[in-house]
Design a protein that fits this description.
Layout: H1 14-27, E1 37-40, H2 44-47, H3 53-60, E2 65-68, H4 70-82, H5 86-103, H6 106-117
Parallel strand pairs: 1-2
Helix pairs in contact: 1-3
């Protein structure tokens, strides 16, 4: 089930994000006391031990243990590794440029998708 909350993300402060999480949980009729874990990236606004979202949720439910998001950590490892090679930096720079060029125009993007879907 997709959730469209239409929350305004004016800032990335921990309190604002915490309020947003609590609103989604309330709107979806999910009791925070039934949550047994939480997982975010390592940004201090989310994972901060004293004032991050995870700390604020843990004040309400001490059993909602925080676990660092493995996918985010793995993404960071890949990103940092790729930045260590000039060839990788060049390759991904060209790839990003091609993506930016194609995605800037709905017509170019549609033509690209059509060509990608054609069987060779």
């Amino acid at each position: 089930m997709a959730y469209e909350n239409n929350l305004a993300y004016e800032n990335h402060g921990a309190q604002h994000l915490f309020d947003s999480v609590m609103k989604v949980l309330t709107d979806m009729d999910i009791d925070i006391n039934n949550c047994k874990s939480q997982s975010y990236d390592n940004a201090s606004n989310m994972a901060g031990v004293y004032t991050g979202v995870q700390a604020r949720l843990k004040e309400i439910n001490p059993f909602a243990d925080f676990v660092t998001c493995s996918a985010h950590s793995l993404h960071l490892v890949g990103s940092v590794s790729a930045e260590c090679s000039r060839e990788a930096i060049s390759f991904f720079g060209v790839l990003q440029g091609v993506y930016n060029f194609l995605s800037a125009s709905p017509q170019r993007w549609a033509q690209f998708i059509d060509n990608m879907n054609k069987k060779v």
